[in-house]
Amino acid sequence: MGIPIYQVDAFTSEPFKGNPAAVCLLDGPADDAWMRRVAAEMNLSETAFAAPRSGGDFDLRWFTPAVEVDLCGHATLATAHILWETSILSPNARARFHTKSGVLTAARVDDRVELDFPANPPAPIEPPDGLLDALGIAATYVGRTRFDYLVEVADAGAVRAAAPDIRRLKRLDVRGVMITAASDEDAFDFVSRFFAPGAGVDEDPVTGSAHCALTPYWATKLGRDELVGYQASARGGIVRCRVVGDRVRLSGHAVTVLRGELVAL
């Protein structure tokens, strides 16, 4: 028997949009080197590896094609979606994941998956050498979070038109860089894009972990705790966001597009 593996488009209700993640369901702990090889083979921005633990919880780890990451939203959403879809968890059960970022949970809310993640608000900084030149844009704000730089620009058009120098961004001492602006569409409060060449992902289609920073940032600016963000990548995706104390709730849809099994063990 092989190991079940799925591909899920997260933060979208339409196949072939949002952010695709591979979800690998393990019986127990797996070798790190093997997980890295599987993630490189899947060649998606993240592959999630979930293994059961006592009490009905799961260990969860995430790998890009190049490195393991400490936090990933869309692959967590995808994993919860698969656990419910395969009846490993009952429809009303909350998924609890033990991760490098602590215990994360996911619940079904209406027809969406809602993630409970730690907020990661940015602290303002002076732009480091090379950042704005690599992005090729002017900034109205630059901040740094635990993982990334957050750069606000003048308008949503500048976010969509940005064509950063990926090789220069890769030299920065962070996982990635998010650029953002207030939305020019009534359906959304803000737009963003996320570049993480240092983690092996030139541009991530829809980034849950980036919204751990974008949510508190825009909630403070706009004076509201509930927001809707649009990540303006080529695939695009919608993230519903809510600030709850020092946590954020991020929700979105998910669509399974592939079911199979790994036979190279």
Explain briefly what this protein structure is:
With 265 residues, the protein is α+β, with helices and mostly antiparallel strands. It contains six helices and 18 strands. Helix content is 19%, strand content 41%.
Approximate helicity band: 10-25%
Q: Distance N terminus to C terminus?
A: 10 Å
CATH class of the largest domain equals Alpha Beta
| Rough outline | globular
Q: What is the name of the CATH architecture of the largest domain?
A: Roll
Radius of gyration: 18 Å
Number of helices: 6
User: What's the total count of β strands?
Assistant: 18
State the order of secondary-structure elements, H for helix, E for strand. Answer: EEHEEEHEEEEHEEHHEEEHEEEE
Number of domains: 2
Pick out its properties.
single chain; 265 residues; alpha+beta; Diaminopimelate Epimerase, Chain A, domain 1; 2 domains; 18-stranded mixed sheet; 6 helices
